[in-house]
Amino acid sequence: MKVNVLLPLFNMIFFFAWGIAxxxxxxxxxxxxxxxxxxxxxLARWVxxxxxxxxxxxxxxxxxGPLISERFAYVYFFGYLLxxxxxxxxxxxxxxxx
Length: 98
Hints:
Elements: H1 6-25, H2 40-64, H3 73-94
Helix pairs in contact: 1-2, 2-3
């Protein structure tokens, strides 16, 4: 059994698309906790950049997936999920300043 790279692949597509939509389209109303009276430009720019960075890290993990041995497949998978959860938690905490 080889390391499954489908989760990072789907996440890469999702976060790249959403990050670009936020960055270019300024669609901040899609974000949870969006407040109309705050800085829309800053929020769209910051969260869009973070989502594009998550997509880039997912791409790196996709490329590294075939190099990882079968014994470390669970470490790869759960490590990726932990990294994603911590990063998204950080994004939601820091987005409150906008």
